[in-house]
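Researcher: Let's try something more involved. This one mixes different molecule types, so please make sure each is placed in the same coordinate frame as the others.
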Amino acid sequence: MKGTGTGALPPMLEQYVRMRDEVAAQLPHAILLFQVGDFYETFGEDAERAARLLGIALTHKSSRDFSTPMAGVPLRALDQNVERLLAAGVCVAVADQVEEPGSGLVERKVTHLLTPGTVTEERHLSADENYLAAVATGDGYALALLDVSTGEFRCAAFHTRSALYDELARCRAREVLLAPEMSGNAALKADFQTRFPVMLSPANFDEAVGRAELRAVLNEVPGSLNSAALVRACGAVLGYARLTQQGRLEMVRRVVRFEPGAHMRLSDAAVRALELFVPQSPQGVTLMDVLCQTRTAGGKRRLRAWLRAPLLDELSIRARLGGVEALTRAPDLRAGVRSLLYRAHDLERLAARVATRRATPREVAALARTLDLLPEVVALLAAQDGLLGTVRARLGGLPEVVTRIRAALVDDPPIRAGDGGLIRDGFHEELDALRRDALGHREWLAHLELSERERTGIGSLKVGYNNVFGYYLEVTGAHLGKVPTDYRQIATLKDRARFTRPDLREREREIARLEAAAGRLELEVFTELRDSLAAHAEALGEAAGALSDLDVLAGLAELATEHGWVRPVTRPGGEDARLTQARHPVVEGATGGRYVPNDAELGRGRHVLLLTGPNMAGKSTYLRTVAICALLHQIGSFVPAAGAELPIYDAVHTRIGASDDLAGGRSTFMVEMSELAGILHGATARSLVILDEVGRGTSTLDGLAIAQAALEHLHATGAHTLFATHYFELTRLEGDHPGLVNLHVAAEEDEGQGLTFYHQVVPGAARQSYGVEVARLAGLPAPVTARAGRLLGALNTQGDDAQMRRDLAALDLGRLTPLEALELLHRWQRGLLGGE
Ligand code: ADP
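Model: All components are placed in one shared frame. Result:
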């Protein structure tokens, strides 16, 4: 606290400083919002920060010999300001007054600690998942992920940092805890922060503490956590979450150790290049946008999880495809399921709120409304087997919960349990009796006006109520003479007077007593109900998961039906991929009816497809179409094609476009090469590799050399490779590399008309690059394009010369047969004549 003056701090500020220090010991940079009457105040440096971050006025709290900056927000504006602070990456502690203000210092308590990765209040959350992550190292890397809002708790071990980073990027954690061995390494921390601009918070990574945390929350240290790094990461996440949740972590019931290798490897670069979740241009559409036909928030989260982690297991893929297929074949079933889902609330989150005994009456009612739908869903799914049958089984078993809630709670309860009026009449005898008695008194009061008018003969007599006197009888001046003797005057106004009677006071006190007792009892009954629901947390979580699965399957079926997608045939051991009339779902949507579908065939005898064609012809779209179909197949979705047979790929690797990593300070070329390095190291015979314009970021010859070497390497791995390039020299590789096949995207250059794109992928190499032609289309001045055309001619000859010289130098004349020499001469001549 930066005060001026010599005096000691006023008592309230002393209390503030003490609480702020306590908070700071746990969350060093948090801002403490300190209730002072109708405002939440901050003081000192925090006031300056808050004023800046929230755009609120900075004032001063001053007394005779003391002054400090102060900034506050009204109580009712708490939520929006908390949200703003969280969005700015600042944690918030809220200290509330916990007693009625009297003459002395009001007692206050920190009631909430809010951090971006651990908020659970619906109003601070988007419907998406909200992960808190912890990373520790040891033998490799360990990652723990916790979504406090649903209780989902997972962990995994990684051999390499890049695999860890890929997973972290995929789960989009909102807050990360780094073990000291990482946060203490300045270079590593800086690298981390440029990759993941999220809040980094401190936590306890001690292994023994971690074990204790695990025991406290899960009652054990699960055997799957078989390394110190895993225990430390999981322990850190739990400890931090427990701190921010004030000990309430009942929604966390188990930790699932997942194998990163159990899913298709999908690099961060691939996720970005295929625009799964984030568009590359601000108005762009993502694959997720197109896929997301789900009806519930849980379904949307589940779909995203599927898309982040495509499957490798044949049976699981078939199971999902079977579920989607059944729903495409039964339009009535699909429509029925989807209309029921439309009415469902976020069951996963509600289940977590119930498990932690935090659910409000309104949330419990929403839970009942959602559970009420389940028997109908189960009935719709009665004839289904396979995955839909499993979903049905997981949805059963909760009807008594609904009955219990329905019996106890009114249909439309208030938000807060303390407001009363939430328990149904007839549910609790004692409560009913209290209410009946209170009602009796109220009715007596309601009749009092009439009966007193009769008794006194004063037709204008009124019964009124105010906060000072409670109930009173009011008589106008003209009738004061008729006032009976049992009235006691309590107030005199200009033209009338107010009276009370001893029995009136008594009734009033009795009503207040009965209603307070009823309120207390309601709260007790509600708390008991809510706690009894916590016992069903497991089944609730199960049902919530099943509902999300069903939502995704039904959404995918809807999509497939609407857009004419087909079920791909899974060829688990197969080497061949065959797509007929495949479309890129996002580009197709953007081009309206003008989309040109294309076939793709990869496999024996053609595992590397080399694609040439002018810019803007559709090369990149073609490449991505194949990758997206492969991905969709392995999440269990139909694919946008007329026919599809696909193997199960262990990875989809992509290197597409020139994405500058400006924030990371690396040049385009450097980024390109490090991504390429990752692909060349990682690709196997079971991978799908998509490379677009490799080598573009450097000089032509360097680029060509690198592109060719990379292509040859991939060719040797046996990976299914699609390689789009503007290096026409590469098309010559076809002859000497069995399995490498040239394709091009058809385009035509008409004299004077310019280029026509057909977007049709056809066999063979493109004739020329059309680069200059595209430049002309883009509006480059005619003299410039004309000069470029002439230069190109000269360069092409030089390029051929260079190629010939290299080939010549590499010849082993002693072993060359006359036939080979002739072939070589023929090839050179063909090259010089422009490939004719
Ligand atoms: P390239 O990679 O060859 O430069 P792109 O794949 O980026 O070309 O495609 C350029 C544009 O052409 C796309 O934005 C899209 O509008 C259109 N396009 C691409 N493929 C098709 C197609 N098959 N049918 C219709 N339009 C297409």
